[in-house]
Amino acid sequence: MKKWLYLLIGFVSLPLFIEWGFWGHRHINYYAVFTLPKEMALLYKKHHEYIKEQAPAPDRRRYIDPNEAPRHYIDLDKYGTYPNFDIPRTWDSAYAKYGDSLYEHGILPWTIQQWYYKLVNAFKRKDLTGILKYSADLGHYVADAHVPLHTTANYNGQLTGQHGIHALWESRIPENFGETYNPYVGKAVYIEDPLEMAWKIILESHMRVDSVLELERKATELCNEGCKYVYVSRGSRQFRSYSPKFIAIYDSLLNGMVERRYRAAIKRVGSYWYSAWVDAGKPDLSELLGKKPKVKKEKEKEPFWAAIFHIFSRKKHEERAQKQIRGHVD
Prior knowledge:
Layout: H1 2-11, H2 21-32, H3 38-46, H4 48-53, H5 57-61, E1 80-81, E2 84-85, H6 91-98, H7 101-105, H8 108-125, H9 128-145, H10 165-177, H11 194-206, H12 209-222, E3 229-234, E4 237-242, H13 244-254, H14 257-279, H15 306-312, H16 314-324
Antiparallel strand pairs: 1-2, 3-4
Helix pairs in contact: 1-15, 2-10, 2-14, 8-9, 8-11, 8-14, 9-14, 10-13, 12-13
C-alpha cells in the first residue's frame, strides 16, 4: 500500500530526475575529459560527445535490466552507524557474510570496482568500443557515489516525511545553479586501490546525509506558507515542483555542498579513467584515432513514469536482482 501511495504522490509532482540528473551526469563526464593527460586526451576529446551523452545510460537501463538498480547505491545505515559499519570491504567477504541480501541494500562500491577492471581490460585489448562504453558507465557509477542520498535507505526522504529530496539535491539544485560551478579541477591522479577509493567516496557522502536532511527541514521552516512548491503545467496536466525560492534557500543552507561533490566527482571520474589506462600498461591510443567504435547510442528519452518508477518501486528491482544476479565482480 505504501508503495502505491508514493507512486500516486509522484504522479502529481514533476518527473523525478534521478541521481545527478541527465544534466549532472553529462557535465561530470564531459569535464572529466579535461583532467586527462595528452596521451589519453586526444582519443577522449574525439569521442567527447559520446562519453557525455551516454553518461545517463545506466539510468535508462534500469527499466529494462532487473540487475541494474542495485548498482547505483548502497544503504550503509543498514549495516550500522558511522564509522562502525558491519560490512566487509571486499566482495567475497561481504557476500560470504550477507549473501543475496547485499543486492537488496545495493552494491555500488563493487560495481565501481567491476567496471574499473572492465575498462582496464578494454584498454589492454585496445578495444575502442569497450573503452568508450566502460568509460561512460564507470563515470556514471563514480558520480553516483558522490551523492549522499545514494548511501542511505532513506534515499528519497521517505522515512522522514521529506519525499522528493532526492531530485531536489542532485537534480534541481545543479540544474538551477550548475552553470555557476567551476568545473575545472586540475589533472587526474593515479588511484592505488580502486575499491578502497570507492569506499572512501561513499563514506564521504554518507557523512553528509544528516546535513542533507536537516537543512531541508530548516529550509522548509524558513519558507513562508505556500513558498515551498509551485504548480506547473505540462500539456493537460499540472505537476507540483519545488519553487525557485525554496531551491535557492536550500542551496544557500547547504553552503556549496552540491558544487563541492560535483567537482570532486569530476576529478575522481577522470582519475579512475587515467588509472585504468595506467594499470593496462599505458597502451598507445593514437592508433585508435582513425577507427570508428561499434557503439549504438541507447534510447535518449525514458517513459514519463520511469523516474517515478525507480524512486517508488526500488524494492521490486532489488527483489528481482537477488534472485537473478550472481558474481557481479570479476
